[in-house]
Amino acid sequence: MDPPNTESDLPFTGERFVPGTKGEIWIEHWHRYHFAARWAPGRRVLDVACGEGYGSALLARSAARVTGIDISEAAIAHARRTYGGAKNLEFVRASCARLPLGDASVDLAVSFETLEHIGEQERFLDELARVLAPSGLLILSCPNKLEYSDNRDYRNEFHVKELYRDELAALLAARFPECAWYGQRPTFYSVIAPESGEARAQLAEVEESSPGEARAALSRPLYFLVVASRDRAALEATVPALSVLADRGDWVYRDYENTYRKLRRAEIRVEELERDGSRGIQRRRGWRWWLRRPLERLGWLKSPPI
Predict the structure, then answer these.
(1) In whole angstroms, how large is the CA radius of gyration of the chain?
(2) CB–CB of 94/71 below 8 Å?
(3) What is the rounded CA–CA span in Å between residue 108 and residue 40?
(4) pTM
(5) Which fold has domain 24-244?
(6) What is the domain partition of the chain in residue ranges?
(7) How far is it, in rounded angstroms, from Cα 126 to Cα 96?
């Protein structure tokens, strides 16, 4: 399958990810689908809230069949145009609370960053339980409200109801008693890997203040990822593994680096102006400037020459 075209005709509004969007959102979203792909081979797969369709197309490379579902007519139309060439892949417009699939017709269901966007969370999980086969697996992700919103003092306008860990656990336990929890946090990593590509995983999490003290677990995940099932044997069939998405072209890092350089140049310029005693900068320090500025913007007063 050819790689997706990053020049999407579906605009990025902040509600759903579109390939080509810069920043850590690129790593977050692609990594989830690569993580889920290890369970896809030979299975009947459902991708709920598939959006632009890139993730469904990725899973279809090894799955027996993939059905991507999204409530957005524009997103489904785009997905069909962009990825419709795969015979084992279809896109259907539908609500996640009313899945147009038969009972026990799916072996693997993935739902990334969907739950927090809807009010019918229980109905959605009921539908997932209905369409999944008895030994089927659900791979679900959603923001960790404590880290995503509370600790960052951040509000996402597209989120209807974010969840704390115990709230998500309660929702899942009523329908999927067997769960394996993972955490995801986008950041810059140093990756050491053998050329053979075969290795046991190691995670060493440290802080700059005490780099000699490592922890073999990820603290404060920004997102929860849960692999859930009603069948313990099905859940235990795949050994938990550390998953690392390495950015081959350092796209995100270079974007941050470029932003930092611009910010640093601006800081240096401000320092130079302050050091030279620029009259413009000096005026902005005084109360008279703050009184004059609104009147100058309205054109009622002329700005004094610098």
Answers:
(1) 24
(2) yes
(3) 7
(4) 0.76
(5) Rossmann fold (3.40.50)
(6) 24-244, 255-297
(7) 10
pLDDT value at 162 more than 60:
yes
Phi and psi at residue 297, to the nearest 5°: -65, -30
Q: Extract the tokens encoding 43.
A: 């299975």
Distance in angstroms (rounded) separating the CA atoms of residues 27 and 144: 17
Parallel, antiparallel, or unpaired for β 44-48 and 106-112? parallel
Residue 95: its pLDDT value, please?
A: 96
**pLDDT at site 101:** 98
* DSSP for the chain, written as a single string: -PPPPSS-SS---SSS--TT--SHHHHHHHHHHHHHGGG-TTSEEEEET-TTSHHHHHHTTTSSEEEEEES-HHHHHHHHHHHTT-TTEEEEE--TTS--S-TT-EEEEEEES-GGG-S-HHHHHHHHHHHEEEEEEEEEEEEBHIIIIITTT---TT-S--B-HHHHHHHHHTT--EEEEEEE----------TTS-------EEETTEEEEEESS--S-SEEEEEEES-HHHHHTS---------TT-HHHHHHHHHHHHHHHHHHHHHHHHHTT-HHHHHTTSHHHHHHHHHHHTTSSPPPP-
Q: How far apart are CA 83 and CA 91, in angstroms?
A: 9
Cα(221)–Cα(218) distance, rounded to whole angstroms?
Answer: 7
Question: Quick check: 68 and 50 in contact, CB under 8 A?
Answer: yes
d(CA 287, CA 194): 62
Of 37, 223, 242, the residue nearest 115 (C-alpha): 223
| pLDDT over 60 (residue 75) | yes
CB neighbour list of residue 204: distance below 8 Å, 6 or more residues apart: 214, 215, 216
Give the sign of the dihedral formed by CA 87, CA 89, CA 94, CA 97: positive
End-to-end CA distance of the chain: 61
Residue 306 has pLDDT above 60, yes or no: no
| Token pair in block for residue 93 | 């417009």
According to DSSP, the β-strands at 65-70 and 44-48 are parallel
Q: Helix 24-36 vs helix 251-275: angle between axes, to the nearest 10 degrees?
A: 160
